[in-house]
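Quick entry, no commentary yet.
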Amino acid sequence: MDKIALIVGASGIIGSNLARELLATGWTTYGLARNPKTDVPGLQPVAADLLSPESLHTALAHVAPTHVFLTSWMRNDTEAENIRVNGGMVRNLLAALAPKHSVQHVALVTGLKHYLGPFDSYARAGSLPPTPLREEQPRLPIENFYYAQEDEVYAAAARDGFTWSIHRPHTIIGQAVGNLMNMGTTLAVYASICKETGRPFQWPGSEAQWHGLSDVTDARIIAKQLVWAATAETARNEAFNIVNGDYFRWSWLWPRLAAWFGVEAAGFDGTVHPLETELAGDADVWRDIATRHQLAVPDLNKLASPWHTDLDLGRPIEVMTDMSKSRRAGFTTFQSTEHSFFDLFAQLRTDRLIP
């Protein structure tokens, strides 16, 4: 039977890598967004507003996916609004698809805020979970839009009879422009500014993150897990963590990132140096760098997301993720974290996004 994928958020870090993975393995693939991009060859764009049932009904009139991949979300000012908006987007989409009776499986991408709490109560002392983080750990007793999204998937699955999978990555490392959570590109931009201005590549985060163990998720490896879970019997109706599979300490990785750019690495010095502060006055600096090096994106804010990088690197605990459940179920793909960053930096340079 033909496999027809609908990716919500196909222009993002995860969605674009997923689209390439699906297309490379023979899937018919649609990418839904309010303003869909057409930079992935073979991806069929679908323009729709997830907050408008009428828009979805019209846009999906001739699309009957067998598999739905939810990789997008919308940031709002409060968690209550995050719940209303992001839960509503999932509910609207699955309701629009229900009359087609075509959907066999729905995959939802959330993240480690499932364990650490949402933005307005993120990783606060007194409510920190034990690590490594495991899928069987219970929900936190606080509002979280990830829980609302999950509940919408569960309710639609009970109504329509499809299977589901939940995927919980750590920080995503991959290429995308305009993404709200983009540590790899943010660090690449910061290192490039440091090189151009002679500033040290100063560690911006906490002592716990500098010395503690951590992991990240390459966008290519979550794409592979999403495709695996879409058809694997062992992945039906399960939640899975997804990270590269190795652990590292930032105190080990930071000098290696600095060396790639040829800049001086400065480690934790007893003070947190938030990137929002470090980059606050650099919009004109970056525009000048972009002009001199003929870069594709001169707007610093379209490339860097320092607020989210600060959130991750400023946590008061080390954070690493257990992959045992996924391994037992049959997903054994591995990715070197050091090379996740180096591959990204090389791609950013090839795409003329950094000098």
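second:
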Amino acid sequence: MKEKHDVKNLKFQVWDLGGQTSIRPYWRCYYANTDAVIYVVDSVDKDRIGISKQELLAMLEEDELKKAILIVFANKQDMEGAMSSSEVSNALGLSALKSRTWAIFKTSAVKGEGLDEAMEW
């Protein structure tokens, strides 16, 4: 799904690529001319955070994404048992990304929380 958005003086296109295993090989088709990656993580799904880390790190190794900034949405913060943003950050190994500009935000897509702060950043 492709959407165009305007936030303040920033215009951008968003591609919702989905995270299903069968779709992941096609992600690289969208990497050209990418300035930022918004990576959405289910903060409640502790069983798959390791897979999410592997996929994220593999994606960030792609040549076309070497200079892209990274914004992580630690989503579903409205749900009981959600990992904190620091727990998600640790599980994804974000502190090891020394040569990349990145930030993580607690979000709830259902409630619309944290999204404005992330886009402001």
